C-alpha cells in the first residue's frame, strides 16, 4: 500500500466521465432521473463495475488502494451534481432522503469493486477485466436469486447495485435497519479483498490482521443475517406473527394480540375464499397455504420490506400470502387466486411469463366488492374523454409484458387485463386459459394471437351499453397516475405522515398524542381535511370546542375542492357551532358516486345527529360507543361496533332497527335505496355475529332489489355474501375457531313505537 506512482488526474477524468454519462443517461427516464433510490441503485452498479474493471491497469502499475479510492469516491460528486441539476426540470420532493440513500449505497459498492480488482490483480487472474466484469454480474444475479428466490421478502441488498428497498407499488419506501447492516457487510467484503490482495503482494502483519478481522466480522454478519435484517426467513416472520390458526388447507399467522372476534372473521374469510376459488379453478395445493397477516404497515415493512403492497411469492417451495390484516376482506380473494394459480404456472417461477395474465386472472376471479365489474368499467372507460384508458385492446397488448405492465397506470393495467381474462374464461373456458397462463403463448392455447383476441374482445365491448353507475368510477380509476407519472415519486408529505401518526394514536386511545400529531399536520398543511377532522375530534375529546377558525378553514377548503369529505367536515363544524348544516350535508351526499349507496346512507345518519350527539360521536375513540349514541344513532353505533370487531354488540343493535323510523322524512327513491343499504348492513352484521338464519333471510331477494333499484353493482356483492351463508351452514364439522362462544339471537327484533323525526331540507332532522 505504498504511495501510488500513477497519475491520478487522467484516471479521475475517465471515471468522472463514466459517472457523468450514466447520470445524464438517467435524466430523461421517469423516476430514475432524480437523486433517489432508483438512480442510486443504477449508479452503485455502474460504480462497482467501473471500479472493478477500471482499476486493473492502475493496480498493475503499482497504484495504491487509498489513491484509487480517493479518485473513485471523489468522482461520485459528478453524478450527485448532475442529478441535483435535474431539479431544474424535474422536482424531487424527497431530495434529502435521496441524497442519504445515495451516500449509503453507492460508496460501499465502489469500494467493493476496488477490492475485487485489487484481489484479482494480486492473485494474477488471467484476463482480469473480463473476469471481473463477469464476476460483478454474477454476484449481482446470484445475490438477487438468493434473497428473493429463497426468502419471503420484497427487498434485496446487493454488494454490486446497492439494493432494492421494496415493491414498485409502495408509495413510501421501507428504509430498514438491514440496509445499513448490509452496506457494512459490503465494506467488510471490500476490506477482506484488499487484505487478500495485499497478502499476495507480500503484505505484512497489518494486512493479515485486517483480513482476519474482516473475515471474522463477515462470518458473524452472515450467521446473523436474519436478526440483522439483511435477509428474512419464514421462521423469523413466525416469531413475530406467533399466533397460528390452522384451518386445514389454510394456516393463518397472526399477531398474538389479535382479538378472538377478529381471528374468527379473518379465518372465515380465508377458508371461504380458498374453498370457492379452488373449486372454481379446479386445483388444490398438496400443502396448506400459509397466510401471514401483519397488524400494521410498519411491522410489515420491517419484516419483508413492503408497507402496503400484498406479496404472494409463488416461486417459493410452499404456497404463502403476505398482507395487512386490515386488507383481508378487500383483497384476500385476489391474492388467493395468485397462490392457487401457481399449481398450473410455468416451472420454477410457478407463474405466467405474461404478467397481464397473472394479474388479469386474479382480477377476473376476485370476489365482488360493490363496484362495477371490470367489463363495465372498461366499457365506461371507452366513453370517458381525456387521458385515461384509451383503446382497451391496445392497453391489453401493451401491458401483457412485465415492463409494459409495471410502468403502466395500475388502474388501466389491472382492470383492462381483468376484463380481458374474464372474457377469455366466458368465451373459451378455463382449460385454454390455464395453458396460456403456463406458457404465455396465446396462439397455441386459443389458436389466435394476442392481438387478434384483444381486437375481438374490443368489438364485443363496443356492443355493450355504458353503465351510468360505472362512469364516475372509471374516470377516477383510469386517471390515477403511475409511479412514473407522479410529480414526486416515493415522497410522503410531512402533513400526511403527521396525520397518519395522529390516526394511529387515536385508534390506540392515546388522545393527547393524537391531538399533537394532528395539530402538527394542520400546521404543515391547513387544507388537508383528514388533519382538520382529526384535530377537531381530538380537541373535542380533550374538552375543547369548535371555533370560528375551524369554520373559516372548512369553508376555504370547500371553496377550492368541494368533495364529499370537505363538505361533511364543513357540515360538522357548522352544526357544532349551532349553525344550519343541512345544505353542506346534502351537497356531500350529492357529490358521492352513484354506486356509493352505503356512503349516502351513513351520511344521512350522521346528518341526523343532534349537536350534542355529533360532539359525542366525534369525541369518542373508534372502539367506544356510549349508550346515548346507541339510542340516538343506532346505525352509526352498530357500524362502529362492527368495525371494532364487537359483532355480538353490533348485531344486538342492528336487529332492533326499524327502517320505517330510520328512513322517515326521505322521499320514496331515497328511502328505497337507504332501505336496501340497511338490509345489506344488517345481513353482514348478523353473519358476523353467528346469526346465519337471520342473515340468509335478510339477503334473500336483496340482490334482485339492487339489480332493479340500484346500485346494480351491489347485487353481485349480495349474491357472494348469500353464498357464503349457505357455505357456512353446509359445514358438517367447522373448524373449532368458527364456534362462537356466545350464541347470538337468530332473528330480527320487532320494531317498537317511537317518535318519527320530521324532514328538513331532504335529510332527517334531529
Uncertain regions spanning at least 5 consecutive residues? 753-766
Distance between the termini: 85 Å
Radius of gyration: 30 Å
State mean pLDDT (0 to 100 scale): 91
- How many strands? 8
Overall, the morphology is: globular
Number of helices: 39
Strand order of the largest sheet: 3-4-5-6
Transmembrane segments: 12-35, 41-59, 71-89, 95-120, 132-154, 174-196, 208-229
Biased composition (Basic residues): 757-766
Keywords: Membrane, Transmembrane, Transmembrane helix
Region (Disordered): 736-766
If you had to describe this structure to a student in words, what would you say it looks like?
By secondary structure, this protein is mostly helical. Among the domains are: 8-231, no CATH class; 592-766, no CATH class. It is built from 39 helices and 8 strands. The strands form 3 sheets. It has a 4-stranded mixed beta sheet with strand order 3-4-5-6, sandwiched between helices. It has a two-stranded antiparallel sheet with strand order 1-2. Strand 7 and strand 8 form a beta hairpin. Helix 26 (529-541) packs across helix 31, helix 28 (564-576) runs antiparallel to helix 29 (582-591) and helix 29 (582-591) packs antiparallel against helix 30. The longest helix has 29 residues, at 95-123. The chain is globular and about 95 Å long. The N and C termini lie far apart (85 Å). Mean pLDDT is 91; it is low at 753-766. Keywords: Membrane, Transmembrane, Transmembrane helix. Residues 736-766 are annotated as: Disordered. Residues 757-766 have a biased composition (Basic residues). The chain crosses the membrane at residues 12-35, 41-59, 71-89, 95-120, 132-154, 174-196, 208-229.
Amino acid at each position: 500500500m505504498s504511495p501510488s506512482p500513477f497519475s491520478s488526474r487522467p484516471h479521475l477524468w475517465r471515471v468522472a466521465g463514466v459517472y457523468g454519462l450514466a447520470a445524464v443517461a438517467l435524466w430523461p427516464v421517469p423516476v430514475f432521473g432524480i437523486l433517489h433510490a432508483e438512480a442510486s441503485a443504477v449508479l452503485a452498479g455502474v460504480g462497482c463495475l467501473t471500479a472493478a474493471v477500471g482499476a486493473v491497469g492502475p493496480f498493475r502499475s503499482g497504484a495504491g488502494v487509498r489513491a484509487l479510492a480517493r479518485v473513485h469516491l471523489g468522482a461520485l460528486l459528478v453524478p450527485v451534481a448532475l442529478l441535483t441539476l435535474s431539479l431544474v426540470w424535474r422536482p424531487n420532493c424527497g431530495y434529502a432522503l435521496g441524497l442519504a440513500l445515495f451516500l449509503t449505497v453507492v460508496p460501499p459498492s465502489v469500494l467493493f469493486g476496488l477490492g475485487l480488482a485489487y484481489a484479482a490483480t494480486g492473485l494474477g487472474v488471467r484476463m482480469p477485466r473480463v473476469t471481473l466484469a463477469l464476476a460483478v454480474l454474477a454476484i449481482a444475479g446470484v445475490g438477487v436469486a438468493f434473497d428473493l428466490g429463497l426468502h419471503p421478502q420484497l427487498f434485496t441488498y446487493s454488494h454490486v447495485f446497492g439494493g432494492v428497498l421494496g415493491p414498485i407499488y409502495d408509495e413510501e419506501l421501507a428504509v430498514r435497519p438491514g440496509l445499513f447492516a448490509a452496506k457494512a457487510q459490503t465494506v467488510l467484503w471490500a476490506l477482506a479483498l484488499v487484505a487478500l490482495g495485499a497478502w499476495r503482494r507480500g503484505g505484512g502483519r497489518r494486512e493479515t490482521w485486517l483480513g482476519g478481522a474482516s473475515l471474522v466480522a463477515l462470518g458473524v454478519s452472515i450467521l446473523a443475517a436474519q436478526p440483522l435484517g439483511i435477509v428474512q426467513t419464514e421462521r423469523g416472520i413466525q416469531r413475530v406473527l406467533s399466533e397460528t390458526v390452522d384451518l386445514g388447507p389454510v394456516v393463518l399467522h397472526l399477531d398474538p394480540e389479535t382479538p378472538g372476534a377478529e381471528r374468527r372473521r379473518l379465518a372465515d374469510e380465508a377458508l371461504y375464499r380458498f374453498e370457492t376459488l379452488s373449486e372454481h379453478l379446479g386445483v388444490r395445493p398438496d400443502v396448506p397455504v400459509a397466510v401471514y397477516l401483519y397488524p400494521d404497515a410498519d411491522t410489515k415493512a420491517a419484516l419483508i420490506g413492503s408497507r402496503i403492497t400484498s406479496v404472494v411469492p409463488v416461486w417459493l417451495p410452499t404456497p404463502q400470502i403476505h398482507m395487512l390484516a386490515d386488507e383481508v376482506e378487500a383483497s384476500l380473494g385476489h391474492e388467493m387466486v395468485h397462490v392457487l394459480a401457481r399449481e398450473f404456472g410455468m416451472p420454477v417461477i410457478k407463474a405466467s411469463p405474461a404478467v397481464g395474465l397473472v394479474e388479469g386472472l386474479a382480477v377476473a376471479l376476485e370476489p365482488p366488492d360493490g363496484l362495477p365489474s371490470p367489463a363495465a368499467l372498461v366499457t365506461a372507460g371507452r366513453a370517458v374523454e381525456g387521458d385515461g384508458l384509451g383503446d382497451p385492446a391496445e392497453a391489453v397488448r401493451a401491458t401483457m409484458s412485465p415492463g409494459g405492465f409495471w410502468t403502466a397506470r395500475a388502474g388501466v393495467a389491472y382492470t383492462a387485463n381483468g376484463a380481458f381474462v374474464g372474457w377469455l374464461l366466458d368465451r373459451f373456458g378455463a382449460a385454454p386459459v390455464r395453458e396460456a397462463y403456463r406458457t404465455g403463448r396465446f396462439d397455441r392455447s386459443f389458436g389466435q394471437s394476442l392481438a387478434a383476441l384483444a381486437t375481438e374482445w374490443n368489438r364485443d365491448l363496443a356492443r355493450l351499453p355504458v353503465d351510468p353507475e360505472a362512469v364516475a368510477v372509471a374516470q377516477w380509476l383510469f386517471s390515477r397516475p403511475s409511479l412514473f407519472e407522479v410529480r414526486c415519486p416515493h415522497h410522503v408529505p410531512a402533513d400526511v405522515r403527521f396525520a397518519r401518526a395522529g390516526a394511529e394514536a387515536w385508534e390506540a386511545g392515546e388522545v393527547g398524542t393524537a391531538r399533537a400529531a394532528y395539530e402538527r399536520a394542520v400546521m404543515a398543511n391547513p387544507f388537508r381535511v383528514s388533519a382538520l377532522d382529526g384535530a377537531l375530534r381530538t380537541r373535542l375529546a380533550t374538552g375543547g370546542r369548535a371555533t370560528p377558525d375551524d369554520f373559516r378553514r372548512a369553508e376555504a377548503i370547500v371553496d377550492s375542492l368541494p368533495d364529499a369529505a370537505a363538505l361533511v367536515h364543513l357540515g360538522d363544524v357548522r352544526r357544532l357551532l349551532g349553525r344550519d348544516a343541512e345544505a353542506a350535508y346534502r351537497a356531500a351526499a350529492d357529490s358521492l358516486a352513484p354506486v356509493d349507496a352505503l356512503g349516502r346512507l351513513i351520511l344521512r345518519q350522521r346528518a341526523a345527529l343532534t349537536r350534542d350527539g355529533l360532539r359525542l360521536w366525534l369525541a369518542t375513540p373508534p372502539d367506544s360507543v356510549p349508550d346515548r349514541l346507541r339510542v340516538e344513532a343506532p346505525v352509526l353505533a352498530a357500524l362502529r361496533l362492527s368495525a371494532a370487531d364487537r359483532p355480538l354488540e353490533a348485531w344486538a343493535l342492528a336487529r332492533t332497527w326499524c327502517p320505517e323510523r330510520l328512513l322517515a322524512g326521505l322521499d320514496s327513491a331515497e328511502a328505497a335505496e337507504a332501505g336496501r343499504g340497511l338490509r345489506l348492513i344488517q345481513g353482514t352484521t348478523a353473519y358476523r355475529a353467528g346469526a346465519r338464519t337471520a342473515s340468509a333471510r335478510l339477503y334473500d331477494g336483496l340482490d334482485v332489489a339492487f339489480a332493479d333499484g340500484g346500485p346494480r353493482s351491489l347485487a353481485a356483492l349480495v349474491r357472494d355474501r348469500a353464498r357464503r351463508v349457505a357455505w357456512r351452514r353446509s359445514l358438517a364439522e367447522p373448524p373449532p375457531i368458527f364456534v362462537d362462544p356466545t350464541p347470538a339471537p337468530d332473528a330480527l327484533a320487532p320494531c317498537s313505537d317511537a317518535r318519527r323525526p320530521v324532514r328538513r331540507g331532504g335529510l332527517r332532522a334531529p
